[in-house]
Amino acid sequence: MKPIINYLNCIFASHKYLIFSIPLIALVLYGIGLFFFSGEIWDLLKNSPAKLDDNALISISNISFMNWTVSLVIILPFLHLLFIPNLFYKTYDFTLPISAGQKLASYIIITLIITLYNSLFILLMNFSIEAILKMLYWNDIMGAFDRKGLLYTEISKYSVFHNSKWTLVFFTKLYLIFLFFPFCLFAGLYFRKYSLLISAAFIVFGAIIGVTIRSLIWNGYSERITNQFYIDFYDWGPLLLATILCYIGFYYFLKEKEV
Question: Tell me, what's the pLDDT at 94?
C-alpha cells in the first residue's frame, strides 16, 4: 500500500492545479448549462415571486429537476484525467519502485478521487439551486395552492424542488466512468493527440455496433425472453467483459514496461 500512496503523492504534487480547476470548470459549465438548458430556473433566480400571479406560481412547481447535470457528473472527470496518458511518455515513470498492479490501482484511485470531488461540487450547486428556490418561492407556491383550492396537492417528486435528491441518484451512475476509463487509457497509450476524442469515438462506434446487433438478434423475439438475468446480462455483459479485458491488457502493458 505504501508504494501506491507514494505514487499518488508524486502525481498530485505535480498536478496541484486540480484542486482549483475541478471546481472552477464545474462552476463555469454549470452556469452555461443553467442558462441554456434551464432557462426557466435562470429567470426565477433573477425575478421576485411578488411579480407572479397564482397560476404562474403553480406552474413553477412543475419545472423539472436539472437532469442535464448528470452529464457533468459523468463527463467532466474524463477531462480532468487527460494528464494520465502523459505519464506513459515519461520514461522515469516506469523506473519508479512500484509494480504494474499497484500503478494500475493508483490510476483507478485517482479516477475515484477526481470523480467524487467533481460530483460533490455538482451536488453542492444543485442543492444550492434547490435551497434558493425554496427560500424564494416555496411559501408563495403553497399559498397559491391554497387560494386555488388545491389543498392536498403535493409538488411533484420530479420537480426542481427535489433537485438534490436526484443528484444523489446520479451517484449510482458513477460506475459508468470506471467502465469507460480503460478505453481512455488505451486511447491515451496509442494516440498521443486527441486521445479523449478518439476514445469517445471508439465508445460511440462500439455502442452503435452493439445496438445494431442487438436489434437484429432481438427483432421479433424480445417478447419471448422471460429470464431477467439474461436480459440484464445482455445489456451490460459485453461492455463489462470488454472493460475487464481492457484493464487486463493495460496491466500487461505496464508489466512489460517495468524495469
Answer: 66
DSSP 82: G
Question: Taking the CB of residue 55, how many other CB atoms lie within 10 A of it?
Answer: 9
How far is residue 100's CA from residue 115's CA, in Å, rounded to a whole number? 23
To 10 degrees, the CA torsion angle through 101, 103, 104, 106?
A: 120
In terms of Cβ atoms closer than 10 Å to its own Cβ (0-12, 13-18, 19+), residue 80 is buried
93 and 138 in contact (C-beta within 8 Å)? no
Cross-strand bridge partners of residue 159: 64
C-alpha cell at 49: 415571486
Amino acid at 56: A
Break the chain into its structural domains and give their ranges: 2-257
Can you list the residues of the chain whose pLDDT is less than 50? none
Query: CA of 110: how far to CAs of 20, 81, 178, 209, in Å?
Result: 16, 8, 11, 31
With contact defined as beta carbons under 8 Å apart, do 69 and 30 qualify? yes
With pLDDT > 90 as the criterion, what percentage of the chain qualifies? 19
pLDDT of residue 99: 84
**By the 8 A CB rule, do 34 and 41 touch?**
yes
Asked whether 195 and 83 are in contact (CB, 8 A), the reply is no
One-letter amino acid for residue 148 of the chain: K
| Residue 150, CA distances (Å) to 55, 144, 257 in order | 12, 8, 69
Q: Is the whole-model pTM more than 0.90? A: no
* Rounded Cα distance, 98 and 95, in Å: 8
